[in-house]
Design a protein that fits this description.
Blueprint lengths: L24 E5 L6 H9 L4 E3 L9 H5 L1 H6 L1 H7 L23 H10 L3 H16 L3 E5 L7 H7 L4 E6 L2 H10 L4 H14 L9 E5 H6 L1 H12 L25 H4 L28 E2 L1 H7 L6 H7 L17 E3 L7 H9 L9 E3 L12
């Protein structure tokens, strides 16, 4: 079946001069190790959707809050990264430019000439459309979810697809890649909680990894309906309409080494292969300060998991009287970069999660 173009008319306020309110932009986000690369590769097979590698464009708070500051210090930021505080501790920005046919200097040049994130997004969107001939640009960076509130405010005509996965399988996947258990849990809680204040927004679609693997046609039909594009299951079974002007995904090897393998339920429920009491983690919760930042209550891991249909207990604490402690990972920041952030008057670190200490945090060793 040949592709059919679906015209989109999205009313809204006037866009910033030279910028965009996000019509034709799709933000694909979620906690890492939740299947976002698989979803991105699949979406790119549609004749109207271009989805390239992770660009780290929409996950930097400073680009929303003070683009003028970013422009002033961009030559320094190019080498030290841009602080994600207080929303996250990542510093990556403008990665994988070559996957879009751009040198790193060219992309930073675009950023320097733009007067706002909206204008930079418009330039990048036009570039992707020219290279691929496709109408929609889907930007997949999992970390986008951490500032999703800023994104939906800045781009009121864009759409968001949140992919979520059973936290136990996410934590196990991250642990096998060397990430400590509590930091993995912090990442899942903070990422998944960030979307909570925006549930019910008609421009947001939430997709479970398990549904995409078990019922791909039905799930992809929902996505196509949401994006206002034609659904044909044959689009997603070959690379016939895959974007020719974008590079391959450079994600970790668990899926990208064989992206044409199709959907499989083999990775669902792998947490059952370890001898670990997953319910001991369900009381982990947002700190008051981070919950206030997101505009949510102090959401718990168990509370979030049960909302998405995962069979974990939702308990406020373990019931053994152990006090909660703040999971403080600020020590991981390079002290030189922290000093530069202070000099540049960047926002400070906010602890995200608090927990009751466990006797053992060993996941991988318990297999």
């Amino acid at each position: 079946m040949e592709p059919q173009r679906v015209n989109s008319t999205t009313p809204g306020a006037a866009a910033p001069v030279g910028g965009t309110l996000g019509a034709g932009i799709v933000n694909v986000c979620g906690c890492g190790s939740s299947g976002s690369t698989m979803l991105a590769y699949t979406l790119d097979r549609h004749p109207e959707i271009a989805c390239g590698d992770e660009l780290f464009l929409f996950c930097i708070p400073t680009l929303y809050d003070d683009y003028a500051r970013f422009r002033r210090h961009r030559h320094l930021y190019r080498f030290i990264g841009v602080s994600g505080n207080p929303y996250h501790q990542g510093r990556a920005i403008f990665r994988q430019a070559r996957a879009y046919g751009l040198g790193r200097s060219a992309l930073w040049g675009m950023a320097g000439r733009a007067r706002s994130l909206n204008e930079l997004a418009a330039t990048m969107q036009a570039h992707v459309q020219a290279r691929t001939g496709k109408r929609l640009w889907a930007e997949k960076t999992p970390r986008n979810i951490r500032v999703i509130g800023k994104f939906v405010d800045a781009f009121p005509e864009a759409k968001v697809i949140h992919i979520v996965r059973d936290p136990r399988d996410v934590l196990l996947s991250l642990a096998r890649r060397g990430k400590p258990l509590l930091e993995s849990a912090e990442t899942w809680i903070a990422s998944t909680a960030a979307i909570a204040a925006h549930r019910g927004n008609p421009r947001l679609l939430e997709v479970r990894y398990e549904d995409l693997c078990r019922e791909p046609d039905a799930t992809l039909a929902r996505i196509c309906l949401f994006l206002d594009v034609t659904f044909d299951p044959e689009y997603f079974r070959s690379d016939r309409f895959a974007s020719q002007g974008l590079g391959k995904f450079a994600g970790h090897a668990s899926w990208t080494q064989n992206p044409g393998q199709g959907f499989s339920a083999a990775s669902i429920g792998r947490h059952r292969t370890v001898d670990f009491d997953w319910n001991a983690l369900t009381g982990m919760r947002l700190t008051k300060a981070y919950a206030a930042l997101l505009g949510t209550p102090q959401l718990r891991l168990g509370e979030l998991a049960t909302h998405y249909g995962y069979d974990l207990l939702d308990t406020a604490d373990r019931g053994d009287g152990t006090p909660f402690e703040t999971l403080d990972t600020a020590w991981r920041l390079d002290p030189v970069r922290r000093a530069l952030d202070t000099m540049l008057d960047m926002p400070g670190y906010v602890p995200m999660v608090e927990h009751q200490p466990l006797a053992s945090y060993d996941l991988v060793g318990s297999r």
